[in-house]
Amino acid sequence: MRIRSSFAASAALGAVAVLTTGCLSSGGGGGGGNANTSKNIEIMYAFTTDQESGFKDEVNAWAKDNNVTVKFTQSGDFNSLINTRVQGNDAPDVALFPQPGIMKDMAAQGELADLSSVVDQGDLDKLIQGALDTGMVDGKQYAIPMSINVKSIVFYPKKAAAAAGLTAPPQTLDELQSLSTKIASTGTTPWCFGIESGPATGWPATDWVENLMVSNYGADVYNQWVAHEIPFNDPRVLDVLNQIDKLLLADGQVNGGRKSISGNNFGTAANAMFDNPPGCYMYRQGNFVAKAGGFPDAVLADLDNTVGVFPMPGKTAAEKPVLGGGDLAGIFSKDNESAKKLVQFLASKDYGTKGYAETGAWISPRTDFDTSLYPTELLGSIAKIAYESTAFVFDGSDQMPGEVGSGTFWSEMTSWISGEEDAKTALDNIENSWPA
After folding, report:
1. DSSP type of residue 82
2. Distance between terminal CA atoms of the chain?
3. How does strand 40-45 pair with strand 69-74?
4. Helical H runs in 329-376?
């Protein structure tokens, strides 16, 4: 599920030098044959709180420098509203898609501009390739990532881990299992885990499945599974659930025991990690839990000294796959030159340097972004996990049909973890729910 992060600028001339402003061909979504010199842009997005306020400040500074007026349209029901507006021939100039599925549908329908002539292709090489590839349809670039979140993170309590001699992060999945077994042998549960999230209960379990699918089998198999090119209940998925059972759910592996997981809120599930002595030593979750409402206030006040992270490993030390998400910028008004320039800015190295990165509410998708601009070493370390990844894949449940991704996938994982049904039954039920 998509749970959002509430995480000396370079000269603007430098960005312009590597970006082009070529016109796009005419077509749907407000297109036309002649260049549109309008200085008005509407941009639509889904995110809120600190991420929204930081985004507005960053874009308004750009707009002032470029004599452009920007209308910001936020929607908590982005997918429904964007569909309604496109059908009514009232699409915004620019949209920041929180999920790649709907973006790809609109690109396939001819509603979005091909960005190949908008942003310099050489400069795009600096973007995380997996995230960049998510914006492609039939070999053309229809959307550019302008933010990411990172989910393949294992948080741990720095001081307690050091005192216990747990100083070497595991480099492979086998080493992660060995570390879990080692911790459990001391009488302390290695993991904290919670999947309660109100009506969205179950989504943290889907992230575990997705993370281990890409870690075990790579991005190609992962993407085939997400697209239902292989069955949801493929034997490889059952192997992943069996791996979760051994690593996370077996007796002595999780704080509070398996029966506690479905009632333990994902945001605060890791807090036992900071008890003395620790209730667990590891918590796999996205970067967004390291904020108010997640980790305890005392921990947040001293994050860099209190919390460490390491990436969820792959099958080998050379494999560093990362599960994440983000927002993808696409253009509906195909002949609006100001909209093109805005997307150029959102894709540039300059974006985020005017104060946005310092808020901690946003992570750049550019591998060359200056991590010293993030407010904590912890957030910089999390960003580096994504920048150094060998494969970056988007959250699978967000790309699946709603009946599955935010339906049976959540509920069946909850039933399985709660012990109401076995792993094979849960996967078979999800497969049978996939719409024809």
Report:
1. H
2. 22
3. parallel
4. 337-347
> pLDDT tens per residue, the chain (436 residues)?
444 333 223 333 233 333 333 333 333 344 334 456 678 999 999 999 999 999 999 999 999 999 999 999 999 999 999 999 999 999 999 999 998 989 999 999 999 999 988 998 888 899 998 999 999 999 999 999 999 999 999 999 999 999 998 888 999 999 999 999 999 999 999 999 999 999 999 999 999 999 999 999 999 999 999 999 999 999 999 999 999 999 999 999 999 999 999 999 999 999 999 999 999 999 999 999 998 889 999 999 999 999 999 999 999 999 999 999 999 999 999 999 999 999 999 999 999 999 999 999 999 999 999 999 999 999 999 999 999 999 999 999 999 999 999 999 999 999 999 999 999 999 999 999 999 8
DSSP characters over 126-172: TB-HHHHHTTEETTEE--EEEEEEE--EEEEEHHHHHHTT--S--SS
- pTM across the whole model: 0.89
Domains of the chain: 12-150+325-381 (3.40.190.10), 153-311+400-433 (3.40.190.10)
Question: What is the chain's length?
Answer: 436
User: Distance between alpha carbon 389 and the CA centroid of its chain, in Å?
Assistant: 13
Looking at the DSSP bridge assignments, the partners of residue 206 are: none
- Which residues have a Cβ under 8 Å from the Cβ of 327 and sit 6 or more positions away? 45, 46, 47, 96, 97, 98, 145, 146, 147
Answer for the pair 148, 324: CB distance below 8 angstroms, yes or no: yes
The token duo for 76 is 């908590």
